[in-house]
Design brief:
Elements (H helix, E strand, L loop, with lengths): L1 H38 L13 H30 L4 H15 L1 H8 L3 E6 L4 H12 L7 E4 L19 E9 L3 E2 L4 H9 L8 E8 L8 H12 L3 E2 L4 E4 L4 H20 L13 E5 L32 E10 L8 E7 L12 E4 L5 H10 L7 E6 L14 E2 H8 L8 H7 L6 H11 L3 H13 L4 H7 L7 H7 L6 E4 L10 E7 L2 E3 L5 E3 L1 H8 L11 E7 L13 E4 L6 H15 L7 E7 L2 H4 L3 H9 L5 E6 L9 H7 L1 H10 L3 E7 L3 H16 L4 H13 L3 E6 L1
Parallel strand pairs: 1-2, 1-3, 3-5, 5-6, 5-7, 19-20, 19-22, 20-21, 22-23
Antiparallel strand pairs: 3-4, 8-12, 9-10, 9-18, 10-15, 11-14, 11-18, 12-13, 16-17
Helix pairs in contact: 1-2, 11-12, 12-13, 21-22, 22-23
């Protein structure tokens, strides 16, 4: 708008200049004529034009010069109009890189020597990075947390200019061995670049899950690649396993890290415990209501004024058009939910995921207010005490405590040991104090107590405050300590070819009793269970969503045969696959064989989408439907048993016909068992050695002929 206005002003000035020039000329001409008339008043003058040929010539010259001057200025103005879209971003980005993305300048200007980068998808790696940076003060290493996405990582070559400097990387592996979104550019820079990192001292901690094949693959690569580029590894890589106890893995690695740091730099621990707050409380009672966040993820009033494109920081507030029960009987629940995306411009592909932003139950939120005797409707803000940090607030501020606890903070997961440590000072009962100290320690006894009392008994922050009644933390400090509430991802169970204006999901209601006889409820599924559309004129329920792209894709050619293995809600993406192939068949295109393996407990209880599947079998879209009902007979039967029984069919499709195989569901047991069966079938039916079979399956994965969409 500013540049557009400047153009209008320039054009106005140009026109004014031309008009002014012509006006002055005419005035001069009239004055000359009047003077001439006075001198020859008595003389008879022959008629002649008011403006002579010479005058016209001069006027043409003036107008021509003014015209070309105007055109030149107009072109310059037009050029400046284009700058925001072409040239200007480059110059702006370079300025931003100099001022904001140069972490080296920040380190130097603030006297720091430690920078901790994080690659995080759910917030855990970022939390670990913050804990390391904070502990650096105990070793006279002032630290800074940095998001690689916001930094010019080429500056790593300059780390050697800072005395006793250290770069630590807390890196999660995401999906099928992929870097997290915020670490993607850094990962590609390492892959494609050949920077000289001699003089860079570093250490890496990876966050992964052993139930997945590509366990900590990104962290391992970064650790090796940094060494290849000349950097010095100060401490061996740490590998955290989220399927076991990643907190224990991190704490154990961190303790040894500081031993290595002291040895490498010849320094000693100061012994000072650092309990300095990262954020300070700001009173916002005078802030106008329209400037207060009420649950928005990033932009104030974003749910009232929706703007495309929609993503992780700008979700779409979707109406729920359908919410129906899929189970026929029993005490469990499985929901079929449809999100209305009509008019949103959102597009999805079969196999993608949809992210759902949940909120905590008002019952739990109110309970925290009661336990801490706090007014949850006070408006506040938490401001980073580190003025150089790009992260000014831990969550959108200002807001009320109620909003923070409802939309922004995770109050249902198991707190980590550093929270136990921070709560110690708020315990007035010595027994409560000692218990917290024990669980916060890294001794075998402390780890055992934390594992049993927190993890095994499945206590969240509300349970801790209930069971340790003398612990009364300041609510603003508790808000600083708790991790961010994360969105939940669901496999999309529809095809955009059939349902372009809606996204379907299939979700089991999470609801279970803990060893302390408390009922824990899944944050997202219990919220979704309450959001049922009405048939009257009342506003339909809404929830924030966005689409996350996936590599879980049908073959490019519809004739390619496929095998799908998806027990329980693992059927979800395959429902979309079948819909898409059925759509192609109805269009007259040739489709390949489609074989589905589905399993559940009982046919008459939790056989979801039964009628749909039988119809696809009847019309020929679904070639074969193999069903395993684990509890309908004395001996339990699972899809893996059926897979072994149909080894010939399996090899015929994936071996002889070069078909594709897909697995969706539990990563811990089912997906592993399926993988082992496939390797066995390839070896036996393909008449290969064990190593040949392993290579064959590996090649299938590389060619995207063997894909998995699994969770633990």
């Amino acid at each position: 708008m500013y540049i557009a206005n400047q153009t209008l002003i320039t054009r106005s000035v140009s026109c004014t200049c031309v008009h002014s020039t012509v006006t002055k000329f005419l005035k001069l001409k009239i004055k000359m004529e009047n003077s001439k008339e006075e001198k020859i008043a008595s003389t008879v003058v022959s008629e002649e034009p008011l403006i002579s040929t010479l005058d016209i010539g001069l006027l043409v010259v003036i107008v021509t010069v003014a015209y070309f001057w105007y055109i030149k200025r107009d072109k310059q103005s037009s050029s400046s109009e284009k700058k925001p879209y072409t040239i200007q971003p480059s110059s702006l980005s370079s300025i931003e890189q100099t001022s904001n993305s140069s972490f080296i300048k920040k380190l130097k200007s603030t006297g720091r020597s430690l920078v901790v980068f994080y690659g995080s998808q759910t917030g855990t790696a970022e939390e670990f990075a913050g804990r390391i940076a904070k502990e650096g003060a105990r070793y006279k290493m002032k630290g800074m947390v940095a998001d690689p996405e916001e930094c010019d990582m080429a500056d790593l070559v300059e780390m050697k200019e800072i005395k006793k400097s250290l770069a630590i990387f807390c890196i999660a592996t995401y999906g099928e061995g992929d870097p997290t979104d915020n670490a993607m550019d850094f990962y590609e820079w390492l892959q494609n670049g050949d920077a000289d990192l001699e003089g860079l001292n570093y250490a890496v901690f990876g966050l992964g899950n052993k139930t997945y094949e590509h366990y900590n693959e990104i962290a391992i690569y970064i650790d090796q690649r940094l060494e290849e580029l000349g950097a010095t590894r100060v401490h061996e890589i740490g590998l955290g396993d989220d399927d076991a106890n990643i907190e224990d893995d991190f704490v154990s690695w961190k303790e040894k890290l500081w031993d290595s740091v002291c040895s490498h730099y010849g320094i000693e621990e100061t012994g000072e415990e650092s309990n300095i707050r990262q954020y300070k409380l700001v009173d916002c009672s005078e802030v106008l209501p329209e400037r207060i966040f009420s649950g928005e993820i990033s932009r104030l009033k974003s749910y009232e004024n929706q703007r495309f494109p929609f993503d992780v920081k700008n979700p779409y507030l979707s109406k729920i058009s359908v919410n129906r029960e899929l189970h026929k009987s029993g005490d469990r629940s499985c929901m079929h939910i449809e999100f209305d995306i009509d008019g949103s411009k959102m597009r999805y592909d079969t196999g993608d995921h949809v992210a759902v932003y949940p909120k905590n139950s008002s019952e739990l939120v109110d309970k925290i207010g009661e336990l801490l005797n706090a007014d949850l409707d006070i408006v506040f803000s938490l401001l980073n005490t580190d003025e150089e940090s790009s992260k000014k607030h831990p969550f959108p501020c200002p807001c009320t405590y109620r909003t923070a606890l409802t939309y922004y903070l995770d109050i249902t997961s198991n707190p980590r040991t550093h929270i136990m440590k921070e709560l110690i000072e708020y315990a007035s009962d010595p027994k409560d104090q000692e218990k917290l100290k024990l669980m916060a320690s890294s001794t075998p006894e402390g780890k055992k107590e934390f594992h049993e009392w927190i993890l095994r008994d499945n206590r969240n922050i509300v349970h801790i405050l209930e069971d340790l009644p003398s612990v009364k933390p300041n609510l603003d400090h508790l808000c600083e300590l708790l991790p961010r509430l994360q969105c939940r991802y669901y496999s999309i169970s529809s095809s955009p070819k059939v349902y372009p204006k809606s996204i379907h999901i299939t979700a089991v209601l999470v609801d279970y009793t803990t060893p302390t006889n408390r009922v824990n409820k899944g944050v997202a599924t219990n919220l979704l269970a309450q959001l049922k559309p009405t048939n009257d004129e009342l506003p339909q329920p809404t929830i924030p969503i966005y689409i996350r792209r996936s590599q879980f894709r049908l073959p490019p050619k519809s004739q390619t045969p496929i095998i799908m293995i998806g027990p329980g809600t693992g059927l979800a993406p395959f429902r979309g696959f079948i819909q898409e192939r059925d759509y192609a068949r109805k269009e007259g295109r040739e489709i390949g064989e489609m074989v589905l393996y589905f399993g559940c407990r009982k046919k008459d209880e939790d056989f979801i989408y039964e009628n749909e599947l039988q119809e696809y079998v009847a019309n020929g879209t679904l070639t074969k439907l193999h069903l395993a009902f684990s509890r309908d007979q004395p001996e339990k039967q699972y899809v893996t048993h059926l897979l072994e029984q149909n080894a010939d069919e399996l090899w015929n499709i994936i071996g002889e016909k070069s078909g594709h195989l897909y697995v969706c569901g539990d990563a811990r047991s089912m997906a592993k068992d399926v993988h082992n069966i496939i390797e066995k079938v390839v070896m036996e039916k393909g008449q290969m050695t064990n190593s040949q079979a392993l290579n064959y399956v590996k090649k299938m994965e590389q060619q995207k002929r063997y894909s998995a969409d699994v969770w633990s």
